Amino acid sequence: MGLQCGIVGLPNVGKSTLFNALSNAKAEAANYPFCTIEPNVGVITVPDERLQVLETIVKPQRVVPAIIEFVDIAGLVKGASRGEGLGNKFLANIREVDAIIHVVRCFEDENIVHVAGGVDPVFDKEVIDTELQLKDIESVDKKIAKVERTAKSGDVKAKKELAILQQFKASLEAGSNARSLEVSKEDLEAVADLQLLTIKPVIYVANVDEPSLHTGNKFVDALRKAVQPENAQVVLISAAIESQIAEINDPDERQLFLEEYGLKESGLSKLIKASYALLDLITYFTAGEKEVRAWTIRKGWKAPQAASVIHTDFERGFIKAEVIKLPDYEKYRTEAACREAGKIAIEGKEYVVQDGDIMHFRFNV
Fold first, then answer.
1. Phi, psi of 240 (to 5 degrees)
2. What is residue 42's three-state secondary structure?
3. Distance CA 106, CA 206 (A)
């Protein structure tokens, strides 16, 4: 399964700088380059040290990492909810992504003009939030008009659905994003078909200057306070530093560069890991002489469902899964040695796949 994150932000907050840095980013190994599949869509591999461990042990013909797509969402202006500027394209693109990466400027630079006249991350957030909320209110209102007629006839299901829709409308009109409303999974079904924009999970990227990279600043503090009701994560990244990292081809040089800034990993790596955690995604592996590959699935998926990402036939004809834990693979070095040591578990349809599992599926169609 693919993961697609949409990057949004006002002009001059660093959105384009970040996307361009991603566009030029060198993957952890030179064999896995970034590529552009559309002018505003980039595909980059997910950094995962475990793949390198497996590559060293198995020595496959090729290694295929998991990928993530970043979409540079069309620019936003006030009135986007009414189609002004590139509003319609902006909103359509957001509907298609799994998560929103909202870039907010948290640095001062007199050479870079801010649309609000001064750096104000809360203002930045609220401008985009307002446009998305207005569009969501429009969607909810249309469904309320349809459901109301059925509810008035006494339909119990429609009455309940109407109550949930009105709850979302009231919250949106009060200036809250749909994701902030605490409702049950069952109640969420009432708005599932609407693809509400503000219900999508979000990560706020605080674009900071170098001195604020580790501890943040007053702008970051204000942003964190503003996003508390959404229980959203704020990731500190310096788009300017990421641009420099993207220009370094040699992995050792890149590591030295990171160490100079006191960083253990690039902002890109932090962002990808945060995106996986946000969407409850995990990785399992298949390992053989021809190929070592990482597969992305939802946390909590059972073995047959996990097998379906390789091929639907694997799920349809699932018999069993052979599972090796990575520490055991590292210790015994081969599948045969793991089997001899009793370190291959035979799992059935109810097995919940764990992050880092090395799996081999048996199926019959």
1. -65, -45
2. strand
3. 6
Q: Which of 296, 294, 295, 298 is nearest to 279 (CA)?
A: 298
> In the block, which residue shows the tokens 């896995």?
32
Read off the pLDDT of residues 26-74 as tens digits, 9 standing for 90 and up. 433 333 344 444 557 888 888 899 999 999 999 999 999 998 888 888 6
Per residue in 226-254, pLDDT tens? 999 888 999 999 999 998 998 898 989 99
Query: What b/e readout covers 182-221, taking b as 16+ CB neighbours within 10 angstroms?
Result: eeeeebeebbeebebbbbbbbbbbbbbeeebbeebbebbe
With CA atoms as reference, report the closest residue to 182 among 169, 174, 171, 193: 171
**Rounded Cα gap, residues 274 and 46, in angstroms:** 12
Token pair in block for residue 195? 């693809």
- Which residues touch 186 (CB under 8 Å, ≥6 apart)? none
Measure the CA–CA gap between 139 and 327, rounded to whole angstroms: 50
Contact 44, 34 (CB under 8 A): yes
Q: Which residues contact 210 (CB under 8 A, 6 or more apart)?
A: 238, 240, 241, 261
What is the side-by-side order of every strand in the sheet holding 233-237?
A: 35-38, 41-45, 67-72, 3-8, 99-105, 202-207, 233-237
Residue type, 38: E
Query: In 3D, which of 241, 196, 189 has the Cα closest to residue 214?
Result: 241
Q: What percent of the chain has pLDDT over 90?
A: 68
Among 127, 133, 77, which residue's Cα sits nearest to residue 104? 127
Question: What pTM was computed for the model?
Answer: 0.86
pLDDT at 75: 59
C-alpha–C-alpha distance, residues 172 and 336, integer Å? 58
Q: Which amino acid is at 103?
A: V
Cα–Cα nearest to 305, from 351, 356, 365: 351
Tokens of 313: 């036939």
DSSP letter (8 states) at residue 114: -
> Dihedral of the CA atoms 146, 151, 157, 161 (nearest 10)?
50
**Token pair for residue 319?**
């018999």
> Can you list the positions of beta strands (E) in 238-357?
281-287, 291-298, 318-324, 345-347
What integer pLDDT is reported at residue 23 of this predicted model?
67
Q: Strand, coil or helix: what is 165?
A: helix
Q: Which two tokens stand for residue 255?
A: 């590591």
Query: In this structure, how many other beta carbons lie within 10 angstroms of the beta carbon of residue 119?
Result: 21
